């Protein structure tokens, strides 16, 4: 059969090995050549050892793990790869004597951290039909007379090189690993299990094509006949290559098993990941360059500055990371042409202003530099406004730069310490897919990764062009629902039919429950609660089901007038007094302190029906999540606490190492942190990233300690009324909840914060101390949020093969720059006359709606205290217990009960396990999380997204090649186009007060839905709730 020559991936080897590569032998011996590509200098074909003497062989080789290291004695100087990275198809060459060491040529690279390494670039031959088979299975179209895409040829090479026993062992191991993985389609899991079962039957001689016993699949096969019946091009075009394992010949079964094993071992079982990544790395690309930092700093200043400045505006204007990612592309290309190729050499590495073409790794580093800080800081967006401005607490010390700087830096950097502990659980594992990252990776790939021309279901447009077409269309279309024809956005058409019908407006209205079969034509509204193109379908379905139950309960509370909710709007997130008006917090304060006398002459605070349901669900989801995720991921949780212990041991060992070095005592690198040589060989991206040095645990813990010290300085030097034990509490609660919360975010794309839990506990512990509650709430929430933000970027670095230390430096610098930008803008905002006052509603619209909510929460939970709230709503405190019980029940039903029944009734084992897989698609944490979307959102913001999710899930099954090529690019284009359009619309017309008055812009608001649909409105002077003498 015809063979094609393909390029292997580049291999890094440390300079300590003096340019010679030890090569391990296999049990059956080696034969063949290595083709070393020397560029303009030609190429060499070097023979390998056929029967390698044991004294010359490298370290022992495990055929299952398929890995070896240069030195088993020094993990710091080890390189892990696979023997197949050096082998050509050894059946194609005569047996020749070889040498145990291969000479290498040095390849200088601009990338920091690789100047002391050699790079081998070699090629090999692979069966062309194997390439066709792999391309078909991956859904990648091939073009006549053009080379195969590199990802296809790379996987095909691994398929040809992999032995049957090795492939079967890999497949078994990964099927067991993914058995509870909701992101793996059930059809794929059934196929893999069927392949394993039939391969074992062949091996046992139970079945054959002729009805006679067959030899073991592991017997040496004829490479030419491996794809004799499956791998013909015509076969792929009519789709008949998808054979049932029961109908496969031994060669077909071998090929299928080796293909799936190669996908597991060298790439990813998820089509989502494969669509935006490569299974190989190009180590020659510069990453941490001067121009990458320059471009990142420019757009971080713009993005963080704009977001901080407009954070007090209603509605807010923001610049997203994806917008900056798009703007980075022309900036990087401009720097490529403008900057000279001049630089300096530091520690053997040349740093140039212009190291060559702007590449995807530089672009991604700059994007991560921006993403870690573009959203602003919690302290500058909320705490400092409420502390400084006179209409809130008006404390003078909060204006001092020392206080604002230490508190901001402490809250921003404390999450780094926890990010280091999370790596092993949500970065390294394959199952930690992080579906929310895919659009960012897709946009980066569309802009900078050159892709082969291919025809996919009659579509020939490249992802690059498709992205800009979508951006242009989204930009133009968003003008209609946002400005020209606003009824397209708020399509509450049922209320148009009966604008004065109270019940219809409450149930179907955009301000009510939003029960509407088609509530919007605005893609921005469809994407408001979740991204339907990105999140797994089971996440969307669980979320929507939770919202349906939430709407039902809210309606029940409302129509039974539970706790006076019928006297208030059904779905408002505001807090009200006993006259049905918004709660005036200033009426219960004296000099910023809670005044019980004023409180008793005014009113307790009351929640709407939706807000009552949301807070109750928040209390339930914390215990539910901890119990359910903790039990279902028990081994991960136990290992996490062991890793916390190991991290502190690493700190001690690292300190000991440097003390020994300073005191001239003998010390080896084994005395240091062990984190960077943790065995992660089962995960393909981890194996590739192992070429780069890992960030050690002591760096993360050191950042945590420094941040903690800054926080102590902030609360003790200035009179914040905050105890130091409160900081330990914030760290402790994150230590308990952060891993389960991040696990579910990494697996499903659903996440929630600890802000409600922190303010509840602090309110109980420190009643009457609202400022202390605000500070601890900010730190407790930011540790969780920033840790997840940092760890998300680290997963991106794995998918894009970026050096972890380069990413870490960019995150630290980006966070520091962003903090100073936000502080600078904050001080400018504080000088704006009348900021955060109602008068701003008709001018700048800087009315500080979110800051008002934050201030009200500080009074209710910090000054008034949770005890009084639970006296008004006593059932809420039982939500913690209910959440734990529900979590235990669902864990028992989904995990131990089916296992027990399968053992009890082995004749029904298959049916029971199939039912178990179906039951596991229901996730009670995501289900309850759907309820959290209410107040002020409702079903009208989720129904459109549900339809989009169902549509693209069907496309994924029916037209997987199209889905793989365009879906995430479509998502990125929609988000980017809408963001640009919103900014232009604001500054072009809305900022100037230019309005279009016509039916299409008024019909949605000319009804009770927007005029105030209240079931039992109060008359003037009428109140509800307890009398003043019975106030809690």
Please tally the helical runs, counting DSSP H or I stretches of 4 or more residues: 38
Low-confidence stretches: 10-120, 207-241, 674-679
**How does the major sheet shape up?**
4 strands, antiparallel
Using only CA atoms, what is the Rg? 31 Å
What structural class do helix, strand and pairing data support?
mainly alpha
Mean pLDDT reading? 82
Strand content is under 5%
| Strand order, sheet with most strands | 1-8-4-5
Distance between the termini: 86 Å
Helix content estimate:
40-55%
What assembly state would you assign to the polypeptide chains in this entry? single chain
Describe the structure.
This protein is mostly helical. Among the domains are: 113 residues, no CATH class; 140 residues, no CATH class. Helix content is 52%, strand content 5%. The chain is built from 38 helices and twelve strands. It starts with a strand and ends in a 21-residue tail after the last helix. It comes from Yarrowia lipolytica (Candida lipolytica). It is found in: Membrane. Belongs to the oligopeptide OPT transporter family. This is OPT oligopeptide transporter protein-domain-containing protein.
Features:
1032 residues, single chain, 5% strand, mainly alpha
Helix and strand arrangement:
Layout lengths: L2 E5 L3 E4 L5 E3 L10 E5 L5 E5 L53 E3 L13 E4 L1 E6 H11 L11 H12 L2 H14 L8 H18 L29 H5 L12 H17 L4 H4 L15 H20 L11 H18 L4 E4 L2 E4 L7 H12 L6 H11 L12 H26 L11 H11 L14 H15 L1 H6 L8 H5 L4 H7 L14 H4 L10 H23 L29 E2 L2 E2 L1 H5 L8 H24 L1 H29 L21 H6 L7 H21 L6 H25 L6 H11 L4 H30 L4 H26 L19 H16 L1 H7 L6 H16 L1 H9 L4 H11 L4 H8 L11 H16 L1 H31 L8 H4 L5 H4 L21
Helix pairs in contact: 1-2, 2-6, 3-4, 3-6, 4-6, 8-9, 8-10, 8-28, 9-10, 9-13, 10-27, 10-28, 11-12, 11-27, 11-29, 12-22, 12-24, 12-25, 12-27, 12-28, 13-14, 13-36, 14-36, 19-21, 19-34, 19-35, 21-22, 21-25, 21-31, 21-34, 22-24, 25-27, 26-27, 26-29, 27-28, 27-29, 29-30, 32-33, 35-36
